[in-house]
Structure formats: C-alpha cells, structure tokens
Amino acid sequence: MPRRLFPAAAPLRFLLLVLLICGTSCAEANAKEGGTLSRVDLFTAGVTEMTDPASPSDKQKFASFSAPSLVYVDGVVVAFAEAHYTNATDRKPYVGVAARWKKDDATTWAEGSAVVVDHYDAKVYRLLRPTAFVDNGEVYLLLGGYGETGAPLTAAAAAAGYWRPREASGRISSDDDESEGFEWHSQSTSPIPSDLESPTPFKEFLGGGGAGIRLGDNTFVLPVQALKADGKRVSLVVLARGTSYGWKFSEGTS
C-alpha cells in the first residue's frame, strides 16, 4: 500500500492541483494565460501555531509536522497533519492534529486550528497517522493513540479499548447555505464505537495515513496499520459500511 512520506523536520509542502480547487475550466484558463501551478507552505516547523477549540485563548507553536492528509468537501479543501510539540507544562513530547482549509473562491488559506491533546484520555500523548474520509459533509480522521514513550498502548491497556481506532471529527460550517470553512466537533479523539471490538488477529491499531475512499456501494475503504500478536507491523484496510458500524479488517495484509 504505497504512501508518500514527508521528513518530520521539513515544512510540509502541498502541491494543490488547480483541478482540485476550481475545476477543469479554471485549469485551462490558467494554462492559456501562461500561469503555473503554485506551491504553498501550509505547515511550517517552528513557525506555525494554532489554537485548540477547547482552549481558544491559548496558541501552541509546533516543532514539526508529518503524515499529511487532504480532503475536498462542499467547496472547501481541508489539509491535515500530525503536529509535534513539547508541552510547556510537563516538558514532554506530544502529537496533536492540525488542520487548515481554503474555500474554492478564496485566495488565501485560513489560519487553521488543531486538536492539541486528546480531550478524553490523559494516557494518550500522541495522536498519529491520520486517515481522513468524508461522509455527508462530515470529516472524520482515524488516529492511532500512543502513550508517553511513543509506544502503542497495548497489553494491559487493551481492556480499556486503546487498541481500537481513535477518532477526531469536524464539519464544514455554512452561512446561508454557503460553505465557510472547517471546524472541529467538540467530541474529538474518542474511541470509535464499532464492531472492531470483537476479537481480531491484531493487538493494536496504529493509525493509517492518507485518505480513505468511498465505493459505489457506499462502503468506505480506509488504509490503516496494525500490530499483530507476534509484534509484526502490517498494512491493511478497514472496510466500513458506515462511520461507526459495519467495520471489518481486510483479509490480506502487507
């Protein structure tokens, strides 16, 4: 399952195709006028800072970014990435999820916001490898929950559900039926209540990376990684009939 990796210490540079943002006609017009596709730095290590909707008065500056993901919904492009930083209170490394967005007709990207910490469990220090997908205007991110050392929360913690995917989510806000931008839901980073709770050959969900797709029968195909009982890390997909039900792992792995 191919994935493009970005160095954690370098800015994430998203080359946004004009086709994605404004359609074929816009691309043709741009070409006729001698224009070129532009590159924009959305997340810059040591520079980009954002607020968490749970603490809107506090800004967090991030040391590095990795594992980008991109979705397009209701006329808005939304870019996500892991956001790495050192907590100013306990001086420990944390990883949140950052988001920036841009409307079709806008010339600049919104400042953005981030889920800086897991809002529901103090044992989760790092939210890694976001896999983004869209359902009826709602944006979902599957995330792997990791502990203080950066290791997956497995074994004794498994009974608490740490091996299952964690989820951050949001929506495209609107004003008079016109899309405005992306905003996080208040219930972010909670475990997904799915039938992946049933016994599986995996002892830990490790997150995924990239974006999921929706098939013609409305089944979601979500690229993920998991840890097997023997400690081997494998890549596979989750097949989901809905956002919180009808989930199962693919039979094949790589």
TrEMBL record:
Q: Which Gene3D superfamilies match?
A: 2.120.10.10
Highest taxon listed in the record's lineage: Eukaryota
The answer to whether UniProt assigns keyword Transferase to this entry is: no
User: What's in the keyword line of the UniProt record?
Assistant: Signal
Q: What InterPro entries does this protein map onto?
A: Sialidase, Sialidase_sf
The region annotated as signal peptide is: 1-27
State the residue spans of region: Disordered: 169-198
Q: Name one Pfam family in it.
A: BNR_3
Identify the residues that the record assigns to the Sialidase domain, covering every copy: 67-254
Q: What is this protein called?
A: Trans-sialidase
Organism of derivation: Trypanosoma conorhini
Q: What is the lineage of its organism?
A: Eukaryota, Discoba, Euglenozoa, Kinetoplastea, Metakinetoplastina
